[in-house]
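Continuing the batch. This is chain 6 of the set; chains 1 through 5 are on the previous pages. Same settings as before, nothing changed between runs. Recording input and output for traceability.
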Amino acid sequence: MMKGRLQQIGTASFDRSIHHFAPERSLYNELSAHGKNGQYRCYDFSPEIYKFANGRIKRHDLCDRDANRDLAMADIILHNHVLEHLPTDFRHVLDDLNSRLAPGGIHVFTLPTKGGKYDEDLSPNLAPEERKRRFAQEDHVRIFGRDDALEMIGEALGGNGSVFRLNHYLTPAMASVFGVRNSYDIDARGGVGGSTVFYYEKAAVGVEGATFPHGQSAMTKAGLAELLIELIDARLAETGGTGTSKRSSSEVARQTIDLLVDRIGSPDFYRNLEEAAE
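Output for chain 6:
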């Protein structure tokens, strides 16, 4: 049953409602089911730059709290390396987006990091070269420090945030095949980097009693398994796999589903996961 649910991703049958900010082309294709998923909505402050989307991306300013709160409720909210661009309190943005999650919904994001502690400057007068020196790009207003990012994001999410750790789901060999070994190693040592996946899950009705390893709820496990497959599918579709693999991206992705199901935990764990996903 769970395999069937995962295999729906990237097809017209995958009907989760999604808000995707600053959409990557490969993820756009997968999550929109190539334009067939009517519940997939994507946004950017400058939608005109996304030529591949044929005008389907709506303009949205994440600094506008009223606009954020007017967004429809969603099952999945996703943004990668967006918070560093926003000249506002990033905590407000996270709060606003979390408020738009349906019960059992999940908010997933990544952000840039550097050694040391958090650094921010919202002044419009800061010279571009100084922004680049401090924040890595001229259009960034902040960068998260590897020394305190986990604590900061945890506090921003009200103590209810979590980190998705690849080493809980993949072997080192699998991580190498998919080109995510560096991220795997960071996760294995409990660190944080630019590809570290943070997430917040809104409580789901009726599954409070189901618990799993690492303190995650049943619906979190189901949602994260789906999102991981989406990310792997999208990566392989874009790169055609790595030099170590000659198989087609679809074949690798489908085999990965089987491997994940086999490795995700004990029989009792998987049985509870199936019940929560039904």
